[in-house]
Amino acid sequence: xxxxxxxxxxxxxxxxxxxxxxxxxxxxxxxxxxxxxxxxxxxxxxxxxxxxxxxxxxxxxxxxxxxxxxxxxxxxxxxxxxxxxxxxxxxxxxxxxxxxxxxxxxxxxxxxxxxxxxxxxxxxxxxxxxxxxxxxxxxxxxxxxxxxxxxxxxxxxxxxxxxxxxxxxxxxxxxxxxxxxxxxxxxxxxxxxxxxxxxxxxxxxxxxxxxxxxxxxxxxxxxxxxxxxxxxxxxxxxxxxxxxxxxxxxxxxxxxxxxxxxxxxxxxxxxxxxxxxxxxxxxxxxxxxxxxxxxxxxxxxxxxxxxxxxxxxxxxxxxxxxxxxxxxxxxxxxxxxxxxxxxxxxxxxxxxxxxxxxxxxxxxxxxxxxxxxxxxxxxxxxxxxxxxxxxxxxxxxxxxxxxxxxxxxxxxxxxxxxxxxxxxxxxxxxxxxxxxxxxxxxxxxxxxxxxxxxxxxxxxxxxxxxxxxxxxxxxxxxxxxxxxxxxxxxxxxxxxx
Length: 497
Fold this sequence. Notes:
Layout: H1 8-30, H2 39-52, H3 57-74, H4 79-85, H5 99-123, H6 128-144, H7 149-154, H8 156-181, H9 185-203, H10 207-227, H11 232-250, H12 253-259, H13 267-285, H14 288-307, H15 315-328, H16 331-337, H17 343-371, H18 375-378, H19 386-407, H20 413-422, H21 425-440, E1 446-449, H22 471-480, E2 484-487
Parallel strand pairs: 1-2
């Protein structure tokens, strides 16, 4: 059988995949200069102690469980997230902390690819090129324009809590789709067994993702009950288990202790503010590059909608429902802290912003197809040559690049990382940090350390305080077995004569 000749879609897939790989190389390189910060130390000091005592695998697990128990009682109930925090890569060696960037960047891309592949190839039986190309385009935008670069890819505690759990959520719903559509008994059993631990994982993560997953599972259960799907009871069981475990997480005694230190908002007001701030954030994020992205993927989504068995009857209702689901991610921090969260949490909303628009454009295309099923044939759009499509894509790429200047070309993650490495800034940061670690690892009950001086917006200082009982100082003291860690102030400049 002769080999199928590569068409323009195949070439586009390989071109954009190559562009994506070239774009993440500087980011991964910059990750080699990152070091543990802030809560990385506080949540992993028990693991570090076990390692220093030559503990085995079981000792490390026990240490992580103790960390979960302490945090559950004294700070917050996100049990699965706390467990992962304890294993930040730097706990094994400072030289391994670069794995943070690799895990977050590749995890974000591979989970997006898995989700797109599951939805497009496994479910709709469309060409794999659509899945790869859509995943690459989404990943390019999410990585390049992410609001908080440090909290996304360079700080394990912050990025694990939001970026990694967003990736877990994409994997979870991909597995759920595969479980629902599986034909063979072995596949059904295998996917269900995988969903069981993943349900606990998602319920014990950050509250924005946990709440969203509970809502999505409830929607999935109701939808399958309506369709009288043979696996409806299994999905209902998973939804009930997730909601129960999420309740355990939100009911932690530590949450009350933490809430006493912040200003909360009433539940009704929090829901209304979530909708309001979602509109604000979407408006801020929708610039020229995002509009170009949405225009570029619409033809793909139009073709995929033509393969979908749905009837696409309620576009406005679906848009409003998915917008409410999107906005619900903002409700937990507004309810608990009267704000939408720090930059690392805003990253979470930003990632899902693209999934929200891709799904709604897909649904709108399906509705449009139902209303005007012969439009493509009437205008002979299906006969457009690959050469014309390539010209169109080239024009869109030029607009995308020009639009990137409106964002700030050198603010894009790739060029920000490239600048830090090429200028020597990242290397100087690494040297200053290593000097601090050398002092902390020396003998003595008290350590006096300087602050990191050479920093940027993703390789940041330790945030040491002159008060040795402050959070960062005490976290370092616990981690390195010191009684106290003091900030060594730089010598004051002599006054001019």
